[in-house]
Amino acid sequence: MTKPKESLVLPPARRRLSWNDPGTRSIIYQVIALLAVGSAIWFLVHNTLSNLSARNISTGFAFLSKEAGFAIGETPIEYSPASTYSRAITVGLLNTLRVALIGIVLATILGTIIGIARLSSNWLIRKISSIYVEVMRNVPLLLQLFFWYAIISETLPGPRQALHPLPGIFVSNRGVQMPSIHGDGLLWILGGLVVAILLMIVMAKWARKKQEKTGQIFPMIRGSLALLLVVPAVMWLLSGTSMTLDIPELKGFNFAGGMTLSPEFAALLIGLVIYTAAFIAEVVRSGIQAVNRGQWEAAEALGLKRGQVLRLIVLPQALRVIIPPMTSQYLNITKNSSLAVAIGYPDIVSVINTTLNQTGQAIEGIMMIMAAYLTVSLSISVFMNWYNKRIALVER
Questions:
Q1: How far is the C-alpha of 134 from the C-alpha of 336, rounded, in Å?
Q2: Cα distance between residue 352 and residue 340, in whole Å
Q3: Cβ contacts of 268 within 8 Å, gap of 6 or more
Q4: Which mean pLDDT values do the consecutive 10-residue runs of the chain (396 residues) have?
Q5: How distant, in Å, are the alpha carbons of 109, 122, 126, 184, 324 from that of 291?
Q6: Is beta strand 169-172 parallel, antiparallel or unpaired with respect to 244-246?
Q7: Amino acid 110: pLDDT
Q8: Is 284 left (phi over 0), alpha (psi -120 to 50) or beta?
Q9: Among the listed residues 180, 159, 160, 157, the one whose alpha carbon sits nearest the alpha carbon of residue 168
């Protein structure tokens, strides 16, 4: 028997410290670039600190522990002028997150509806949706915010003549007053909502496996609504805690009690949602049109209705095209919320502007604004990129 020949394995080539070696040149270029960037940063920092020292301007974040001394119109957490600057900035950040998260949800719903409507076979619906998209995308957002703020604050009646669309809800130029819930039972209800959402995720996976095995479609919408209503109620009943419903009442020239959505918050939310929904509509429309027409024809040949084809076949495939540009729109709605300062909504930009005007800590204030938006934007990007990888096609 002949002995098989051993494969010849060449030793790895040794890198030569020569300018003619491309690898060596790339390392040298990177080191030079890093040194240049580091030198520029050192020069800017050193020059800034020297100028501040020459003008006897203190630096650092020690001012955060001092008393703020100014009021904030909307405070999702407990706050008073006697609170610290750090507490005030936290209130501004929570206000920004509140309008951004609610705006993302509402803009996604509205934009998806309009995007689907743009592909409707009904001529009137298709044209109205197209006009909406073209008008809203070409009118500056700041101008829209001014428009909605003027509509809410100037055209709505005063508290004594407030609109009363539903029991316990009043709409006036002071904002929207609605009932609020207080007590330990609220925490149990919120916990129940979290549990219900987790159960919805489990139910969705189970329904998908059931459909793959039997072909039967589980009514996810009705099941999800049932979980959202039943689970929090059951957890509250089992906890034995109490809750009180605070209904707003007209006292004097304004309402007392309940919860108030200010005109500034309403104008900002409406403007962000309507403006961003126009861009999301185009993202949804292009994603649906990216799905091959043969998918529609094959599904219709199986006897599926147009709504079922869109929900079960087309949209799941279109998501792979929709998610990347949708991420950009979510980032835009978060960053565009900084325009709230123009209409007096106390977001993080407005609060820090007041802070740096009182303390003179302009550099620290700008750094905190940049850090806040960077953190929120990166968090949204990480989540959306994770979701995009999760739904991406896996090549074999």
A1: 19
A2: 13
A3: 99, 145, 337, 339, 340, 343, 345
A4: 54 64 83 93 84 73 86 85 90 92 93 91 91 93 92 83 79 81 79 88 86 80 87 84 78 77 89 94 90 81 79 82 90 92 90 88 87 92 87 61
A5: 21, 21, 19, 49, 16
A6: unpaired
A7: 94
A8: alpha
A9: 180
Whole-number Å distance between alpha carbons of 242 and 223: 28
In a 10 Å sphere around its CB, with 0-12 CB exposed, 13-18 middle and 19+ buried, how is residue 200 labelled?
middle
Report the run of H or E that residue 19 belongs to, with start and end. Answer: none
3 state DSSP class of 181: strand
Q: Report d(CA 117, CA 288) in Å as an integer.
A: 11
Question: How far apart (Å, rounded) are the C-alpha atoms in residues 174 and 254?
Answer: 8
Closest by CA position to 66, among listed 91, 89, 95, 94: 89
Task: Print the SS3 string covering 191-223.
Answer: HHHHHHHHHHHHHHHHHHHHHHHHCCCCCHHHH
Residue 267, both tokens: 């104008």
Residue identified by tokens 């969705």 is: 204
Alpha-carbon span 336 to 176, nearest angstrom: 23
Query: How many residues in total does the chain contain?
Result: 396
> What is residue 72's three-state secondary structure?
coil
The answer, as to whether pTM is greater than 0.85, is no
Please state whether beta strands 175-178 and 169-172 pair in parallel, antiparallel, or not at all (unpaired). antiparallel
Structure tokens at 203: 């139910």
Quick one: 254 exposed, middle or buried, by C-beta within 10 A (0-12, 13-18, 19+)?
middle
Long-range contacts of 43-46 (CB under 8 A, 24+ apart): none
CA dist., res. 128 & res. 132, Å (int)? 6
Q: Give the DSSP H/E element, type plus range, for residue 176.
A: strand 175-178
Q: Which two tokens stand for residue 77?
A: 């957490």
Confirm if 88 and 68 have CB atoms less than 8 A apart: yes
Nearest to 186 by CA among 228, 230, 245, 226: 245
